[in-house]
Amino acid sequence: MPDKDQPLRDDVRLLGEMLGETLRRREGEALYERVELVRALSKSGRRGNREDFERLARYLEKMPSEDALPIARAFAHFLNLANIAEQHHRVRRRREYRREGARPQPGSCEEVFGRLVSSGIGAEALREAVIAVRVELVLTAHPTEVARRTLLHLHGRIAEMLAMLDRPDLTPDETAAARQELRRLITTVWESDEVRHERPTPLDEVRGGLYVFEQTLWAAVPSLLRTLDRALEHHAGEGLPIDSMPVRFGSWIGGDRDGNPSVTPEVTREACLLSRWMAAELFEREVRSLRDELSLRDGSEELRARTGGAREPYRALLREVRDRLVATRVEIEATLAGRPADLAAPPYRETSELMGDAMLAWRSLVASGNELIAHGRLLDLVRRISCFGLPLVRLDVRQEAARHEALLDAVTRELGLGAFAEWPEERKHEFLLAGLASRGPLVPREIALEEDERDVLDTFRAIASIPRESLGAYVITMASTPADVLIVALLQKDAGVTPPLRISPLFETVGDLAKAGGVMRELFAMSAYRAVAKESHEVMIGYSDSAKDGGRLAAAWRLFEAQEDLVAAAREAAVELTLFHGRGGTVGRGGGPTWLAIASQPPGSIDGRLRLTVQGEMIQAQFGLEGVAERNLEVYTTATLEATLAPAARAPAEWRAIMEEMAESSRRAYRSVVYETPEFIPYFRAATPEGEIAELNIGSRPARRKKGTRGVEDLRAIPWQFAWTQTRLMLPTWLGVGEALAAQIDRGSEATLRRMAKEWLFFRSTLDLIEMVLAKAEPAIAARYDELLVPPELGPLGEALRARLAATIDVALRVSGHEQLLAENPVLRRSIEVRNPYVDPINLVQAELLRRYRTRRDPSLFHALVVTVNGIAAGMRNTG
Question: Residues 6 or more apart from 326 whose CB is under 8 A from it?
């Protein structure tokens, strides 16, 4: 059998050789030889030669910083090139699956639809379920996306050249030209600065988020719909309706003000305008191309009446559409510049106007017998309008519950009503419900407020002035009571937000997750709330802070239980519930393979609707290449469909009881270290680059919720995970797991655990993801950080943690029955093994640079440190 991964290895070898050529040509033979020596020692160390590992550590420790930097850069660039090759290989493999006669790719529309029909799902039921699927992917900016946009563009061009070299019909000249272009691109990457020297603003992040729409999603969405349409016609006898749209997009970029003072009301307004500008630009390009194609003379009476009997009616209609899109863009540019707009045509205000014009052309083509033409570029335009609309992406607004309460407290004090924050919950409810029922506003137009309180009030007033279709949900961070939701409902009413944004309370700590179902039951019982929310409700559940609070295993079970309770509460109240999953990139923040994450949710929790975040570096990982983006969109859709039509059975009571015991024991073990060991915080700050990460220019949001704090409680979950990923101890994901599993084994439950791991998808997926993290952990690397950075009195804690890691690996293998980690995922195991010799030297350089930087705060050292952060992030892939 041919080796399906040999082309990937060939690509990695080719890119590595070209990087080596670049080093020789640009930096000289001496650097190339140093890089090769480091690589040889690292590989030898990986093969078990402890002496060579120590020799490598000593060699890098003694090296001057100016010599260590290019070595770290070389290994970081190799890892980025390997990532590009892997991404391209995913596209290549997808194409191989789709060739005639090949078996369908697992998770594809063809494979899933066929399997569902074979299991007894009728054709009509399948079609109805596909049409009803609603997946919304919400892009968020987080400080783990360390690559600059300039480099991402170059990486995309490298992938294009790899795709060119795959063509079997290339002439020798064309092959030589493509290879030469690769050399130019790799040289350009090497000569470019990979470090941001200024912290990005929220609007910089907005522009970065819009980049992925322009580069890949714009093309991937209509391609996905054509794939979905073909598979549905094959298995159900009829394809998709023209207006069916299973996937839409949201964003937090420019709207997420939780702990980020840089996100002001004006930033939110500008974020919406920039998004609409990009939409107008992209639609204008499509309309120009469509106008070039539709030179037909025949048209419906409706179209001829609209175009005044023009000889080429479609081109006449599309000229008008083009001019209105240009005017839309010009008006936005003028608004951003603060000047009047000189408009040659009326701009579009609502997506329905643009859709009306597109559908006029559609109806005319169908009526005149040109349906074949209608199903070309025009169909793609209609579907893009359905998916993106004039806003392109709908912006959520997010703020912490405590900030809303502080504003209301200031208002009630100003009005002489007392301190709202001190009232009992029942009185708060009475006051808020009365406010919702009243006609007049609560907050006076002019009122004395502190700066933070004024910002919250101004945000609601800004929302009222922004076109409604540009906005999505209002997300309440750290929600814990019905009052947290009612306050936002009242403030929206008071500001004149019409219709109001749907409110999405975010339950994220372990304790708040346990209360989530009860909170929503109280709200569902309030007619005033039901009147605001109608029959459709959204609840967000947080993976990040729950894991930081109680450890990954405890958080996974509490999230599972919370979803079950929320679904039950919604059914009792006969309301439609959408669960919004706040997943990150790392396993410790809910990350992991998309199919596994969706399939392992509680039965009935998806029901055709899914909303989830795509955070930080995962945006590029999932949507960086067009083929990869289409594949990921397909999997989101089919996994949601299968979870709806063929949900997993409820686990037996015995298994649930064991899971409850393990959740509690793992939580105790985790908190005993992280929250109850006095030495832990000093150790954490010494052994990891947590403090230095806060200084990096990789995100507009501060690393901590509050200034001046030093504990874990106020540290955001992202830098918490990121710091441990850099040192490769990976502590937040596995800490507490070993103790929980071992306790069950001691109670005689080993056979039951193994059965759970085989038959209960939730438990199996949880263990598989933890096993993946354990495979990425490197205690020898973490020990090197301790050796260089940790005071002697804290050293025993690091040793104890590494001993816990070893014990956790042993017990995990015992439960899985595997002889080695990732035994059932050899492709991932091989990927990690290939990367390790290239990540190890960067870690060793980083540890030494941290030691030097903490001794003398030299800017040149910090620049080198940032390079190592980038390199380790590239090697570890899912970092935040």
Answer: 280, 284, 344, 345
Q: Is 274 left (phi over 0), alpha (psi -120 to 50) or beta?
A: alpha
ω into residue 499 within 30 of 0, thus cis? yes
From 235, 404, 537, 548, active-site residue: 548
Alpha-helix residue ranges (DSSP H) falling in 697-825: 717-727, 731-734, 737-746, 750-759, 761-776, 779-789, 795-816
Q: Model-level pTM greater than 0.90?
A: yes
Instruction: List C-alpha distances in Å: 189 to 174, 474, 607.
Output: 22, 40, 46
What is the Cα–Cα distance from 728 to 717, expressed in whole angstroms? 16
142 given a catalytic annotation = yes
The predicted pLDDT at position 197 comes to 73
CB 308 within 8 A of CB 319: no
Active-site position among 142, 428, 537, 776: 142
Six-digit token string for 33: 């030889």
Q: What is the rounded distance in angstroms from the CA atom of residue 483 to the CA atom of residue 401? A: 9
Q: Can you list the positions of beta strands (E) in 593-722?
A: 609-615
pLDDT digits (tens, 9 = 90+) for 773-802: 999 999 999 999 999 999 999 999 999 999
> Which residue(s) pair with 613 in the sheet?
138
Among candidates 804, 542, 507, which has minimal Cα distance to 677? 804
Residues facing residue 578 across a β-bridge:
538
Report which of 835, 808, 825, 653 is spatially closest to residue 733, judged by C-alpha positions.
808
In angstroms and rounded to an integer, the radius of gyration of the C-alpha atoms of the chain is 28
Q: Is 534 a catalytic residue?
A: no
| Residue range 574-587, pLDDT digits in tens | 999 999 998 765 55
At 815-848, the pLDDT tens digits run 999 899 999 888 888 888 889 999 999 999 999 9
The whole-angstrom separation of Cα 565 and Cα 553 is: 19
d(CA 366, CA 379): 12
Residues 6 or more apart whose Cβ sits within 8 Å of residue 788: 61, 847, 848, 850, 851
**Ranges assigned E (strand) in 187-308:** 247-251
* DSSP state letters, 174-223: HHHHHHHHHHHHHHHHHHS--S-SSPPPHHHHHHHHHHHIIIIIHHHHHH
Question: What's the pLDDT score for residue 548?
Answer: 85
